[in-house]
Amino acid sequence: MPELPEVEVARRSVEAWLGGQVVIHAELPASRVVRGNGLAGALVDRRIVEVQRRGKWLRLGLDDGRALFSHLGMTGKWVRRERSTPKLPYERARLDGKSASVRYLDPRLFGRLELFAEGEAPRAFDELGPDPLLDGLGGLGAALAKTSRPIKVALLDQTLLAGIGNIQATEALWRARLDPRQRANRMTKAEVKRLARGLLATLAYTLSVEDSDEISYVEEAGADNPFRVYGREGEPCPRCKAALTRLVQAGRSTFYCAACLKPSDGDRP
DNA sequence: AACGGAACCTGAAAGC
DNA sequence: TGCTTTCAGGTTCCGT
Question: Of all nucleotides in the shown strands, which has a C1' nearest the CA of A147?
Fold first, then answer.
């Protein structure tokens, strides 16, 4: 379930569990997720000196300059267990520090774990656009001007803006009263500004929701939907009560309120 | 160069 | 109830 806010929560957790610690035991058998052989051997006795996030990527920096990059895909998550806890379902990797045994779980195997030499990184990581929380959104207008794709589709392009996924894009557009079908390069300055505010608002909101139970990190089966419009086709718009519309763009669902889109002001670039 | 769509996996939810 | 279909918050590859 990882977009920027969830990955940030994962970062804080992994940092708390393993930051500054020496890896005393590791299991990372090669798989679709774990790229390369011998990762466990390379990690044991190394100290994890920092845990960073950029977009949807985590970077665990080691004391030898190398770094373990982690992408959670659709279903990846890091959890902490007792060292005596046996292998969990869908456990793909394990890193044990002195006080924590940290497991990477990933049923669908869309995630990725890979070790890189100092100064190197996955290509997708190197190509990330600005991260809204790390870099701010000052460059949003310039990024969006690069493409004529619909704004909703453009927001999912990690090279334009890092960390935004289907839910955050959907929620931000609703907050900004923008039509998801509007072309990215046709946004007015006022619209870009509204979008930037919408993005920061939904990121902050989601972060606050997700962060509330980071200690237990409990599985929530059937937890209720905390989002304003995502997954709420036909339900009343929280602002104007009109029924929300679902639309598919580039194979991804978008939800919006056709009734409270803000009319364009004609100030086209 | 840029775009839509399928593919990669598994499980939960909806549909019948 | 139980079987079948649809859908899922990710990226990547492939054909147009």
Answer: B2
pLDDT in tens, A180-228: 999 999 999 999 999 999 999 999 999 999 886 444 334 455 578 999 9
A3 labelled catalytic: yes
Sequence spans of domains, chain A: 4-126, 132-260
Q: What is the pTM of this model?
A: 0.95
Helix, strand, coil distribution of chain A in percent, nearest 5: 30, 20, 50
Which pLDDT tens digit goes with each residue over A100-141? Answer: 999 999 999 999 999 999 999 999 999 999 999 999 999 999
Concerning whether A2 is annotated as a catalytic residue, the answer is yes
Assign domain A4-126 one CATH number from 3.40.50.720, 3.40.47.10, 3.40.50.2000, 3.20.190.10.
3.20.190.10
Q: Facing residues of A252 across strands?
A: A249
Name the closest residue (CA) to the C1' of nucleotide C8: A74
Active-site hit among A46, A53, A54, A56: A56
Question: For residue A139, how far is the Cα from the chain centroid?
Answer: 19
